[in-house]
Fold these 3 entries.
Entry 1:
Amino acid sequence: MKTRTALFVLIAGMLMFSCGEQPKEKEDKDVADEVVSLSIIDILKDPYEYEGKTVSFDGIINHVCRHSGDKMRVNPKDNDDYSILVMLGDFINQFDTDFEGEAITCRGVLKTEIRDIDEPAEEEHEHAPGDHTCETTEEAIKKMEKLGIEPEIRAYIELESFEIK
């Protein structure tokens, strides 16, 4: 009798375990389906279109912040007139200035915010409030204005994964 009960519990456990795995696979597939593959230029020209969505793009690391190390700028491979800010988040310790010039594929959530470019930037570094905005950010704003992109709309990526190529 004990053997029969143990066998029943084992079979019931196996059924519950196997049924529990199926929704996870579907959920993983749905998440992968939601990634929008774009160029950096497409993201910057219409950032509100992709606000809050997971995007993937290729580029060249143009600059890794030397002050806080928590962000970098990525250019399209064939056009250094454009760049997008990538917030490194959990990957902060995996990047340094040696990566500048490397090809990268980034995946992350696109965020936008309106900012007053005449006021000190929100992205200033903790150790020197009001004292530093990366030169590459200032250069990017000037280039954006030249290219007809509104620099007041700050588009950036919260990095979820990457691949150095």
Entry 2:
Amino acid sequence: MQTAFNATLPLVIGSDHAGYDYKEQIKKVLTAAGWQVVDKGTYSTASTDYPDYAHPVATMVEQGEAAVGILICGSGNGVCMTANKHHDIRAALCWNEELAALSRQHNNANVLCIPARFVSLELAEAMTNTFLTTPFEGGRHQKRVEKI
């Protein structure tokens, strides 16, 4: 898989209970594609609180310890809101491949948020691939991102 991110750094992933099954499958796909994946939890389908996983994922990206992050919860909203509290995090809630591409092309998003209860696993995997392989266009978009 070609990547739009620094592939020498790991990818960090996290989810709450609603995103656990998707997280586990996406980890397998990413590892098979050659990514080093750091899993910040959760580690089961037992009910849990999404900020407990979104903050560690966002922190790794924020501190330059991970190239990119992926967060998964039921609606995607909770993990997205939490991640976007971090400086220099541009977390994007996506529910189709076009949004995943645009979040990269126009917004230089560095955390993909997936709503597990609203997209199929196949679509989640496709969005992940699109997100990781789509470069930021820069140009007129750069000044907009800087205003964030």
Entry 3:
Amino acid sequence: MSNEKQVDSGRRGLLVATCAAGGVAGLATAGAFVSTFQPSEKAKAAGAPVEVDIAGLAPGEMKTVEWRGNPVWIMKRSPEMLAALPKIDGQLADPKSERNPDDLTPEYARNGHRSIKPEILVAVGICSHLGCSPGSKFTPGAQPSLPDDWAGGFLCPCHGSTFDLAGRVFKNKPAPDNLKVPRHMYVGDTKIIIGKDEKGEA
């Protein structure tokens, strides 16, 4: 009888050890399998699209959201602001957004107002010179660091580059290019998705 008990306890020990080893291996395999469904660090850094409600945005107002670690400006331009845009084309380095269009300006924004809807500007608020963030200078007229005939726009505080209310850079400034218009689309009249359009995610 004592021999049977020793055999039973030996089998029990072997069974417990086998189950424990199998469980550890199973957990390790499951962990590796589940981790394949997690976004990679590269995907996390790229940033998911951002949905923005602009229902309360009044003419002349701008809101800033973050996408891919950068500020994205959404501005509602007044009729007066829109009317001023074509009048300054001769002062701009790239009025038709022809430089680096695939990187800086989606096809649907390659127009005088650089937007899908004329009144709504969507632009990445990073200067194309050295990556500073320009400040808003919407009030027209003479101001420090701005010309006397200033029509409104943006001024980069780092090296003085100026951009109009469509994010287009003025001539003879350190910034080589217009502000980037990110891929975006409307989902309804008052909601915009930044980082995605009909072609997919940016």
